[in-house]
Design a protein that fits this description.
Radius of gyration: 22 Å
CATH architecture of the largest domain: 3-Layer(aba) Sandwich
Oligomer: single chain
Mean pLDDT: 92
CATH topology of the largest domain: Rossmann fold
Low-confidence stretches: none
Number of helices: 11
Helix content: 25-40%
Distance between the termini: 36 Å
Largest sheet: 9 strands, mixed
Number of strands: 9
Strand content: 5-15%
Shape: globular
Number of domains: 2
CATH class of the largest domain: Alpha Beta
């Protein structure tokens, strides 16, 4: 398969392993501080409901997770590190403790990725990895018990056709318990990263020709030959149409708890220009905000949004986010200039009707006001990190779950 070749190329170049960390790699700071956080933030309250139900049911077994397209064990790492709300005085913030897990099962087609998963997590109790193909439905052993969460991540389900998705959701609906969850992760159809592919007739552009060239520096992208593979682009309406058919086939209800967009301006292809003629180094710049000891060049952090004519419905929310993002960066630069002038009172933020931006302004002002007298490089290690979190809060509060981000994610509950 073309997708297998693409991931194998990335592994062989040392670009798709957890051990590789930095500003441009699979596990960059945007992945850990932005994308993983957003996924777990929205999933957590529904998973907490499952936990409470199990705790109130005498004799019930621990949590069971089925990770479809597990890659190098990404799902296990994300779920096991999911944080609960905790007080500052508490040490362990994990939502899922080791004794709560009955089984984590990860499947993938790539033997190379599974080897990486085994190296990283294979020694953990209740963790199993195996080679399976879910293009023909949910792979199950005879008598295999239902799972509490059927999990996918980072566009996994965009590898499937509509027919394959219908069969997969049908099988999950039949196999799951009443109340089980499905986290369905697709590529958003109207992501700014592939603005060239926007269409008013989705049936005209069903797939994109996807290439993993984002892990390479700009000067290296033209020097390597990389395989491409088709990836399905989705909107909530397209997902709902598939779920409706699958629910009827399975004789259950597949209720969408919510859709959310992830990575509206920091997705993997925002700086490659492969599918958008306006490449910007936004992911690298945001990742830099979280790098200790490194100061970020703020002018490159601003979004140069270019609307596409005829698509006002999708341009409008993205422009609001871009304008709010840029205003926050401008105000932070202003605060730092006044801070350097030793002014006792830092300037108040400009007026805005965008509530998430109003709060982000306030947080950045409080951060600089409270930083006087602290140790270290407070810009690199404190102010920039807080700006990164503030930008993340803008994305989370201004996203609409319409398929406008790199990822369109649905949280679905099985009701029997």
């Amino acid at each position: 398969m073309d997708a297998d070749n693409a991931y194998l190329e990335a592994i062989r170049h040392g670009r798709y392993s957890e051990q590789v960390k930095g500003l441009r790699c699979k596990y960059d700071h945007v992945r850990t501080q932005f994308e993983d956080f957003i996924t777990t933030y929205y999933l957590r309250p529904y998973l907490e409901q499952v936990l409470k139900l199990k705790e109130s049911s005498p004799g019930s077994e621990g949590l069971r997770f089925y990770d479809l397209g597990c890659g190098t064990g990404d799902g296990y790492e994300l779920l096991s590190k999911m944080a609960r709300e905790a007080r500052l005085s508490q040490f362990d913030t994990r939502l899922i403790q080791e004794d709560m897990l009955d089984q984590y099962k990860g499947i993938d087609l790539s033997v190379e990725l599974l080897k990486e998963a085994e190296n990283l997590f294979g020694d953990y109790e209740h963790v199993d990895f195996c080679k399976r193909d879910f293009s023909n439905g949910l792979p199950l052993e005879e008598g295999e018990e239902p799972y509490d969460l059927y999990f996918t991540s980072y566009g996994t389900l965009s590898h499937c056709t509509n027919e394959e998705l219908e069969k997969l959701f049908t099988d999950m609906g039949k196999h799951a318990n009443n109340g089980s969850l499905i986290l369905a992760d697709f590529l958003g159809r109207y992501s700014y990263e592939w603005q060239n592919l926007w269409t008013k007739n989705p049936e005209e552009v069903t797939y994109m020709d996807y290439v993993i060239n984002y892990l390479y520096a700009e000067e290296d992208r033209d020097e390597v030959e990389l395989s491409s593979f088709p990836m399905r682009l989705m909107t909530p309406d397209e997902v709902m149409a598939i779920l409706d058919k699958a629910a009827r086939n399975a004789g259950v209800k597949l209720e969408v708890e919510r859709f959310f967009d992830r990575s509206l301006f920091v997705g993997r292809h925002i700086e490659t220009g492969t599918y958008n003629g306006n490449p910007q180094p936004l992911r690298l710049m945001v990742s830099s905000l979280f790098e200790r000891g490194l100061r970020t060049y703020f002018p490159d952090l601003k979004v140069d949004y270019k609307p596409r004519s005829g698509f006002d419905e999708f341009n409008a929310p993205l422009q609001v986010l871009a304008e709010s993002w840029n205003s926050l960066v401008d105000y932070t630069m202003t605060l730092m200039e006044h801070y350097d002038s030793n002014e006792e009172l830092l300037p108040y933020p400009p007026q805005t009707s965008v509530k998430p931006l109003e709060r982000a302004y306030r947080v950045m002002r409080q951060t600089l006001e409270g930083s006087k007298g602290l140790y270290g490089d407070i810009r690199a290690d404190l102010i920039e990190a807080q700006l990164g979190y503030a930008i993340r809060s803008l994305e989370m509060n201004l996203q609409q779950g319409k398929g406008l981000g790199h990822g369109l994610v649905g949280i679905i509950r099985v009701v029997k």
